[in-house]
Specification:
By secondary structure, this protein is of the alpha+beta class. It contains 7 helices and 21 strands. The strands form 5 sheets. Strands 4, 5, 6, 7, 8, 9, 10, 11, 13 and 14 form a 10-stranded antiparallel beta sheet that branches. The chain has a 4-stranded mixed beta sheet with strand order 12-20-19-15. A 3-stranded parallel beta sheet has the order 1-2-3, with helices on both faces. A hairpin with a 4-residue loop joins strand 5 and strand 6. Helix 1 runs parallel beside helix 2 and helix 3 crosses helix 6. It is globular and about 80 Å long. The relative contact order is 0.10.
């Protein structure tokens, strides 16, 4: 972690010093990337100029590192909260690096070549043996077989090279296929829309794969359920209604519905892929599961509400806050990513691959258990505390009458 502390202008206005500081941050961020966390703390009265610290934080992010600026103020309480946030960031960075090191030791990454562009033509493989589609039922905690998206589907094709990758998964273009007569023989043709298939970046056994798929579908289904409730609350709030001169409406949050396609591989073993709709548009990451909140996206996109102006992304961050309050401080939906769809009658956030951080259940001695209720991305109280330290309430939070969570967790 790289920490800069300043009382603002005029002490940090010298051009020579500015260039030297920025050069240090650029070099370290370019070399260490996500392993580096830059933390800028401004200590001064309200209205103090901390442009240089904010610029350094943005520079760190631009070069692939994590950057954060906090105005700590002058009173002891604010300084205490800011120092606590900095300590939490340090702990989070350390744990993340240790976790990645452990994962690298334990997991063997698959060999793959990324597509240069998502819409490039790519080689595909076709799977026709024992293809079935399954949905996870969280209430019964079991899988049930369902129909394909298209009733004529009998097979599918998947591109050999992924167009996207995350920490855990690779994303491929995926298409359902139906039989097609070609001369005297038979072939296959696409039916329906192109979708996305997601597979692990690592070689895994059947048990590990089943656990990963179940956890992924359980998390996304729960997030989808909570988002429906949140949208209803937003719609009913009188303070979040658009003003008379506002043409738009508050954007609903919708998580994609995911399913699993099973098929028989070349060796006769059962294989499976997570499949969901393809999101067209600029994919953005609004928050992470370690507390990072990207509050600088879509600065120009806002809406006028009865309570005042709100950025569209304020609804995404308020959703995480609302879930934490609604579940009585038990769950936090985070790692929010996807697109802001502007093609319909109104803006819609279409999200995928969320994480849920949960409190561990108390044992007989009153201490919290560490079992991950929502898979590997469930960071538990650590993820919840990090979000609470960094979340800044906005007009959507206030319109929903949500209590502040900045000072800690229960």
């Amino acid at each position: 972690m790289l920490v800069f502390i300043s009382d603002g202008k005029p002490s940090d206005k010298l051009l020579e010093h500015q260039q030297r500081r920025q050069g240090v941050v650029c070099r370290l961020a370019a070399e260490l990337k996500s392993k580096l966390t830059f933390f800028g703390m401004g200590i001064g009265a309200s209205g103090s100029d901390f442009y240089q610290l904010q610029l350094l934080a943005n520079t760190a992010q631009l070069w692939g590192a994590k950057g954060q600026f906090i105005h700590a103020g002058l009173n002891p309480a604010s300084l205490s909260v800011s120092l606590s946030s900095m300590a939490t960031s340090l702990t989070t960075s350390r744990n993340d690096l240790l976790s990645k090191r452990d994962m690298e030791c334990e997991q063997i990454e698959k060999q793959f070549t990324m597509k240069r562009k998502a819409n490039d033509v790519a080689a595909c493989r076709t799977e026709t043996d024992c293809v079935t589609r399954w949905l996870f039922d969280p209430k019964k905690d079991e899988w049930r077989q369902v129909d394909f998206f298209n009733h004529k589907t009998q097979a599918f094709e998947i591109e050999k090279d992924p167009f996207g990758k995350g920490v855990e998964r690779l994303a491929y273009m995926f298409r359902e296929l139906q039989p097609k007569h070609i001369g005297r023989g038979m072939g296959w043709e696409q039916v329906g829309n192109t979708m996305v298939a997601k597979g692990s970046r690592f070689i895994e056994d059947e048990e590990t794969r089943e656990t990963r798929l179940t956890d992924s579908c359980r998390v996304q289904t729960k997030a989808r359920e909570l988002a429906k409730l949140f949208n209803g609350k937003v719609k009913k709030s009188p303070l979040l209604k658009p003003t008379k001169d506002e043409a738009s409406f508050p954007p609903p949050i919708i998580f994609l519905k995911c399913s699993v396609y099973e098929y028989m591989g070349t060796n006769g073993d059962t294989c499976a892929l997570l499949v969901e709709k393809y999101l067209k548009g600029k994919f953005k990451k609004f928050s992470s599961n370690n507390g990072h909140v990207n509050a600088n996206l879509d600065r120009g996109q806002s809406i006028n509400l009865e309570i005042g102006e709100a950025k569209l992304t304020d609804f995404v961050h308020a959703f995480s806050h609302w879930v934490y309050v609604y579940t009585d401080h038990d769950l936090l939906v985070c790692d929010l990513q996807g697109i802001l769809d502007l093609e319909g009658r109104g803006p819609v956030f279409r999200l995928t691959d969320p994480a849920i951080c949960s409190k561990g259940k108390r044992d007989r001695n009153g201490s919290r258990g560490r079992r991950r209720r929502y898979g590997k991305t469930d960071l538990g109280m650590r993820g919840i505390r990090n979000f609470c330290c960094r979340h800044i309430c906005n007009n959507v939070c206030r319109g929903l009458n949500l209590p502040s969570i900045r000072n800690g967790t229960r």
